């Protein structure tokens, strides 16, 4: 309420109280002084926030003193608590004494009366039951006697009535022993049992009566609904008079949308700064502004905005205004349907998520289940939680819970949470519900007690501090029991222990099965601080006992008393199905449904009502939130449709079985008596009679009005007389036998099937004087049809009095509603009684009047019409003109947007009703009506209209002009004189044997179809070489010519007769078109002959295998064992390792290591005694490029990361892949610049890898290197960063290898000349000579059996020119046999070569040679590509460490020059021979002895 209004209210309240309590003014003043002093004392004693006293921060040595003082204060506190209790008791007694004193003082003021005999209360006149209409008052009264005088209290439904709780609603009086209760403006909710109780010391008496408040028919839906809005419990006054105008009606919305409920009002006085106070209710809950509801008021509009609809918002909404006389209010229902689920078939979202039983780390979340009509049954629910201030939702349960509540534990104490629920069925998970209000997990039961002393001090004391004994160990919990039991879980609950042991406590739960005494811990991993805990892991059909142990930092308590055996069961289950469902009419778009409550309610939450249109077999929900009562008004139904209804009961376990269906109900307004006619007007008077007309009642009562009763009276009289004993059938009636010059008043009552309705208001006083004016009288019965958004058709009836000449036309005047400024619509008078008014403002309301014209002038205007709004009815449809596809009849068809049970379709031409006509026929059924022309001609041109009676003006018109008529006549002629519709014209196709098929396809053929083919003006019949047939199911007619030759050139025609329908189609095959067909036919004929022997069903093609082998493949057909198959390249036969097997149906030629040399023309030849077939494949150009691209795609996908390899010439980057050939589109890049092969940068590769070598690298060659293999569609790239430490290590390795290669090139070695084995006869001379080389010249040493040979008389060693060395032995003996060797070396190294010498005696058999070691070293590969093998220096005393080539995974002992190891898979194993030569050879120098 605005501040100003509050001030006025308080001033009035103060004045009222001061005038009423004048006697007690002094007492009241003194009490106010005392209260004022108390307030001042309280303010003076107010202290800042509590601070810890110094003595509480004492050192350990002061603890003894502290404990002594604590004990002292504890005793004082006990005494203080006892004193407080004594003061409470004393105060209560004092209050009682004051009340008695006031009663005695009041009695002393009365006059003394003689003492009477005490008597119990007795009702002389008891209460009487009443039945009243809504918004009318009712008075209940009784007379009671008794001595002393009884005290009387009034009750409604056993609830005491407090007049101040509903200002202006109730008034209680007591006059002369008559007690009365007056209820003003009764509402339906005031129905109930009222009782009055009289009490005195001698006894008590009660009288009861029933008050039934009914609503008149048409009063709205709420007459069927239970209590709406609770009455207020506080006094409220308003100086404003508020009148409600247009208000919100029944509203439909969808989850996620926004909607506003608006109520317009008029307030007197209208003060801009003082709007009336308004309250909004949903069902019986007062709404407050929140994120879900926004309220505003001002400018004559009260609005409730719901920015994000949810099913929680569904319900009966009421707006209540405070007025001078009490309250005024309006109610309507809001329906909210489910939003479209994210998964088809998923259920709707749950609703009304609430949180209860909040504790330190536990809450109980509950919700209501959604309705399911066509969705699969709900199998469970998920619950999510979110901490306030965060956006992340966390799922609380791992598996769906089947009951609509879930205990959630493990929460953070003191944190605030929101919860939501999601439903699950076999198709998916629903959208989440609206989140709950925030709830804080906090301890509910505290051991801290707050004591107030004289209203000034708040003292917080722990219960342990009131005890005399200092207890540290907590006691066991008590009252351990299960508060929730179902098949999913149970919830244990207990009372916290007392005492708690002066420290925070937590709990351990133990269970045992049945009557056993083997206890097991339940919450081993959870420290439980709340006296609640859900237990999920219980086996079915087993009972358990539980006990609780309390623990704090000092120790644990004894176990509590165990519970009785507990078993997981559903104590309730779903409710039973509701009883009989009865549906009855309510309005044109709603029905009243009521049902019997189920026999077993099982904690019922409410009901869901479903409806189905008869014949559809599809059910849809009528409400989306459980409704608590057993009667409901279903809105949003289609007028004229017939529905059945069913009901399901809802509780936490789900939905019950469906009730039985109701009886079918046709949707229309409930049957009642009609409302009163109105608008009585005088049409003519001749001095003794009057012709009257009146308007139809606005509400017909759901039944056709059959007649009218008229009453009359003279204007000066109050008595009404019946005009005629027989009622009037039409709304125009002539009243006879009137007295001239007398004024008469009239009233009318309408009659329908339900009876006689209310009488109209009395008409104006009409003078019975003869009309003699020359102008015509007024037109009457103005009606409106074809109401659209910008146009209206106005119709009227001609005046009864035409004046002194015939009526020649009419003027129509128009004005907006509420205005008297009429504007003539037509400039020239119209000669008929209708006019279509266009150019209206959409949604605006207008009134009309009509003036008739004759030769004498313009006559008297008709009465002003009722207002009409320029807005089309929802679902309005127009007349459609069409032609019947079977008969060819031309018709006009109309479908009404609404009908009633008594509705009829009224067709008119030029707005003159068609009753009987030979030109048209009319048929109607349900919502549809059809006007069919018998023989349409020019005579039938004009405007045709249709109107549906007993509706809100459902109508439409259609203008049939000459152009439209000619169009539909042509269509009708085609239907009555049909042609066979062809889907395709005559066409041809060449078949496999060279046959030619001519065919045509009709959209539809009957089994009695006749046809013939004509070729060059000659009919063709089915014979040898020509076959003709048809297929009714496909509509195809065909002719197959087996021998298509040059003589077949010409024109082909087919003529079709199917019943009355005919058709013809031709095809001209001459000239070039015929040549093309003939060539194709000859080719197919040859193909057929080819396929008689072995042939290729698929010609040669290629594909590349995973190992990059190119396969030429072909498929064979019609082969046998004798069939041969050969491969050729450039006409030379190819010999393959595995002979082709034609019987397998396919043959393939592998081409491994494919390269440019494999280009050429390949040929596959297949043949046997039946014939031969050949397939040729040219691998060149585009085909060659496609093969290379296919290889590149596989090789590029398999390419390894770049690997660094050092050589004596430089640094090499290698990329291993399944296969590499130089024809592949391979590019190398350095810092995004393409590299061309040169002396500096060499590019090459092997079949296993591609490489790029940097010769004599410098710092300029640092950076990123990339290889890119393009397969024609996408590139395959690999990159290596040659910089930093990687470059440094690689460069060092390159320098080392370069030096080693130089040494290898210049070391000492044996070039040639020495044999491996020498066999010589004794006493012969032996000369071992060889050529050596080295730079510088090497040193040469000879050995025998590893002992150095020195030159002497027998052994002569020579070394000439630094190139030739020899060992000569004069006269050898057997003892000279052995292993001789030569060691050639210089500073770069050397070589060791061995020779085996065998000496035999003369006459002995020459021995077979026995080889020693190889006489010469293995041929040294070229130094340009050294292999990564180990190297040793020539001197064994200082061997260099072995160095291996860098591999993707080097051993830990060897430092790799690459920064990161590369993958293993694309790199060959280390045992494989590297394509580069070894860096050095083993030194051949032997060990000296």
Q: Roughly how many Å is the radius of gyration? A: 57 Å
Q: Helical residue percent?
A: 10-25%
Biggest pleated sheet = 5 strands, mixed
Total DSSP helices:
7
The structural class is mainly beta
Query: Uncertain regions: pLDDT < 50 for 5+ in a row?
Result: 1-62, 108-114, 218-227, 1412-1489
Biggest sheet, spatial arrangement of strands: 2-9-8-4-5
Strand-residue proportion: 35-45%
N- to C-terminal distance:
123 Å
Shape: flat
How many extended strands? 100
Average the pLDDT over all residues and give the rounded result: 82
Task: Note the quaternary state here.
Answer: single chain
Could you walk me through the main structural features you see in this protein, from its secondary elements to its overall organization?
By secondary structure, the chain is mainly β. The radius of gyration is 57 Å and the shape is flat. The N terminus and C terminus are likely disordered.
What distinguishing features does this structure have?
single chain; 1489 residues; mainly beta; 5-stranded mixed β-sheet; disordered N terminus; disordered C terminus
Short description:
The chain is mostly beta strands. It has a 5-stranded mixed sheet with strand order 2-9-8-4-5, with no helix packed on it. A 5-stranded mixed sheet has the order 11-18-17-13-14, with no helix packed on it.
Topology record:
Layout: H1 3-20, H2 25-45, H3 63-108, E1 119-125, E2 130-133, E3 138-147, E4 151-156, E5 159-160, E6 170-175, E7 178-183, E8 192-200, E9 203-214, E10 241-247, E11 251-254, E12 259-268, E13 278-282, E14 285-286, E15 294-298, E16 301-306, E17 315-323, E18 326-337, E19 351-356, E20 362-368, E21 380-387, E22 394-395, E23 405-409, E24 416-425, E25 428-429, E26 439-440, E27 448-453, E28 457-462, E29 478-485, E30 490-495, E31 506-513, E32 520-521, E33 532-535, E34 543-552, E35 555-556, E36 566-567, E37 581-587, E38 590-595, E39 606-613, E40 619-621, E41 631-634, E42 642-651, E43 654-655, E44 665-666, E45 678-685, E46 690-695, E47 707-714, E48 721-722, E49 732-735, E50 743-752, E51 755-756, E52 766-767, E53 780-785, E54 792-797, E55 807-816, E56 823-824, E57 834-837, E58 845-854, E59 857-861, E60 868-869, E61 880-883, E62 890-895, E63 905-909, E64 912-913, E65 920-925, E66 928-933, E67 942-948, E68 955-960, H4 962-976, E69 982-990, E70 996-1002, E71 1010-1015, E72 1018-1020, E73 1026-1031, E74 1036-1041, E75 1050-1058, E76 1061-1069, ...
